Amino acid sequence: MLSKRFKFFTAAFALLLAAQVLVPGRSSAAGKVIEQLPTPEWSYTLPDGLSFWGTIDTLQSNKRMFIPLLKTVTVSPSKKKTSGMLYASIDRIQGSANWVYDYSDMANDQPFTAHGLYSVSNGYTYVYKKKGGIPYDLTAVDPNGKRKWTKTITDSYSPLLLDNGNISIRSGLSVNTKTIAFTEYNQDGKQVSKLKLTGKWATGILELLPNGYVVHTLLDKQNKVLGINVYRSLTALTTPLATYTVPKTVTNPYFQVHLLRGGSFLIQMSSADTWLLLGYDANGAKKWVRTLNKADHINTTGNNYLIKSDNVYRLYSKDNQLLGKQQIGEAGDREWYYRITPSGEITVEKQYQWQERPAVIDPETFEGDIAKEDFYVLDPANLQIKYHLSTSWHDYETGHNYIYAGGGELYITRSYAPKTITKYMLK
Predict the structure, then answer these.
(1) Closest CA to 105 of 145, 71, 143
(2) Which listed residue, of 169, 269, 342, 372, carries a Cα 20 to 30 Å from 363's Cα?
(3) Helices marked H in 153-285
(4) How far out from the chain centre does Cα 379 lie?
(5) In which order are the strands placed within the sheet that holds 400-406?
(6) How far is CA 290 from the centre of its chain?
(7) Are the CB atoms for 56 and 28 separated by under 8 Å?
């Protein structure tokens, strides 16, 4: 009967584990096929009224996952209100001892109010929420989900989580401001430093990076980009660690600094017709220059960097040596989405690959259209395929979030209003 189309369907998983040796500059091939995923480690279902939301922003510590949520409440018989200002903290080992931290104010929060979630390795989390204008509240939450402190911050962009676990606040961002200040707080909410900068530092664009490096993009009076200086820290602004001056043939480029482990870094320059990537060592010495294509995407993982061109991935060392190449999907297929996970591994996925219908459909047995989802995990050392998960789903079940935590630890939820998350350990 046609009603069979709507019956519950449990999709069969197929897991491909690649165990091949990858030759730099060549794509690897698929390896051993495992018929199905291992038995789930656990599943966790949220309380009523909550669903997972924005899993791309999932964060993690050694013991817990932190995943943004969406809350829906009934205001009246004909009206509901939603908020994304809360998140779940989930025990990675047991899937128990879970808690939800809710920083919403359903009566007073405005639609599209800016907010954010931060996490540190010891389990402390930070959230911020705008208060209608420039001011916002910054809150620290301990590993047990208890609020430790809240500060009202004014005249600042979003807070920056530093590699040392502290939070840095930059203030004085107006174009007419003569002073820029950086204030640093530890997880106890105590101010550990504050530095005020005036003069040339209040011109151009001044940015602090998570490892403490400072980037100063230099502008002339017409706001034309002249170059970029990189400094070791806020307390070492006397002499730049590295300086790059815009060539006369390049007009008003955009700069981005990518950090590598150990202090090395990359400077990416993009303009209307020039795209360059420059490699620097930890002493600020320029070691190499690479010409990029306009559509290239750059990311770093550990001491290596990744260039994505359409669906082709190339991995290079900090010394610009090719470590591996991987093509996912057919040539020219741009519908793949990739991420650098907290573990440094690279995931690539594609969903909603609708499969061809049978030539003849039997209404008694036809369950609906089928879509395939592919999820890859690539080794950050050489782009070898560590896992390839390929799933087929009926149309009413397709669409999933894949949250990869490293070491084979994979979490899966549905894409639409998901309430349940399931943990698997890939072998």
Answers:
(1) 71
(2) 372
(3) none
(4) 17
(5) 42-45, 420-425, 409-414, 400-406
(6) 25
(7) no
pLDDT tens digit string along 382-396?
999 999 998 888 888
Measured at the CA of 422, the angle between CA 13 and CA 306, to 5 degrees, comes to 75
Distances in whole angstroms, Cα of residue 278 to Cα of each of 219, 229, 287, 292: 20, 13, 8, 10
CA-to-CA distance for 346 and 333, rounded, in angstroms?
Answer: 18
Phi, psi of 305 (to 5 degrees): -130, 150
DSSP structure string for 343-376? TS-EEEEEEEEEPPPPSS--TTT----EEEEEEE
Tokens of 362: 């039997």
Which residue in the block uniquely carries the two structure tokens 């395929």?
Answer: 385
* CA neighbor of 198 nearest in space, from 208, 188, 187, 206: 206
Instruction: Answer for the pair 137, 128: CB distance below 8 angstroms, yes or no.
Output: yes
The kind and range of the H/E element at 309 are strand 304-309
Helix (H, G, I), strand (E, B) or coil at 57: helix
E-strand stretches of 46-179: 50-52, 59-60, 64-76, 79-83, 86-91, 99-102, 115-119, 125-130, 136-141, 147-153, 160-161, 167-171
Q: pLDDT at position 114, please?
A: 86
Per residue in 293-338, pLDDT (tens digit) is 999 999 999 999 999 999 999 999 999 999 999 999 888 888 899 9
Cα–Cα dist 306/261, whole Å: 14
Instruction: Please tell me which residue, 73 or 7, carries the higher pLDDT value.
Output: 73
Q: pTM for the full model?
A: 0.86
DSSP 156: B
Q: Give 175's contacts (C-beta < 8 A, 6+ positions apart).
A: none
Nearest to 117 by CA among 57, 163, 165: 57
Spell out the alpha helix ranges (H) of 8-106. Answer: none
